[in-house]
Amino acid sequence: MTTQHGLLADKVVLITGASSGIGAAAARVFAAEGAQLVIAARRADRLDELVTELRGKGTEVVSSVMDIVQADDVRRAVDLAVETFGRLDAAFNNAGIGGDQNAMHLMDDSVYDSIMETNVRGTWNCLRYEIRAMLENSAGGAIVNNSSVGGLQAIPAAAPYVASKHAVVGLTKAAAAEYAAHGIRVNSVAPGVTRSENIIDWFQRNPELEAELHAATPQARTARAEEIAEAAAWLCSDRSSFVTGAIMPVDGGYSMV
Most CB atoms closer than 10 Å: which of 79, 97, 120, 245? Predict the structure, then answer.
């Protein structure tokens, strides 16, 4: 449900990992809900295409090429929001990686390092700079981190990913507790398997895995990226004004089985 003017009308929102998948879907959903956007990702060409698309529909949007592992990149994206729109009201920290699936004893250190660096340090970088900007805003703000059902329970053959997403949950709760008194809410979405370019390709190569996932999910399907984006939009909006420190599964019931 939205208001006449949109769930995020007059909100300035930063979205990371916006060049594809859930991030690109979030840019479109948030724009439709009236947000002014800073979209950030590593692929400049994809960002340019999305900016052109959204501006064609009347959205005020700018882009920032950013690797969340690099603190200076994150700072520049947050500064761009403040310089362009005067403040930062909300952020969807969506960027992250999955990594190879393999037994723990067979994984190379580089896999662990890469996943933890991106998913944990990247979220840490985003939180620090976003919170600093929101502390300058008398209205506070709202931050949504993208975790995973892997942040709620174990997934076989994905130990570093599971560890990283549990850490994102921990950072979410820690920041929520620390900044609630400042009017800053911090929550997380925990998606189940969500259809994207990579997942569709994976299912095409392993059709039996798609059937197994559907069988393990009460709603018997995988998510559309827009469904994750809709949940994040609500958590970024004033409709969730008394919600902080929450980890919202968006997984068709998978994590409750």
Answer: 120
Give just the sign of the alpha carbon dihedral 70, 76, 82, 85. negative
Whether 3 is in a domain gets the answer no
Q: Which of 6, 29, 131, 150 is nearest to 75 (CA)?
A: 131
Name which of 39-53, 57-71, 95-109, 176-190 the model is least confident about. 95-109
Query: 10 Å Cβ neighbour count for 26?
Result: 31
Query: Greatest CA span in the chain, whole angstroms?
Result: 54
Q: Over the stretch 122-132, which tens digit does the pLDDT of each residue have?
A: 999 999 999 99
Considering its fold, how many domains does the chain have in total?
1
Task: Judge whether 161 counts as a catalytic residue.
Answer: yes
Q: How far, in Å, CA of 254 to CA of 2, rounded?
A: 27
Structure tokens at 181: 């008194």
CA–CA dist 126, 5 (Å, integer): 28
Q: Residue 147 maps to which CATH number?
A: 3.40.50.720
Catalytic-role residue among 112, 129, 161, 179: 161
Q: Which residues pair with 194 in a beta bridge?
A: 223
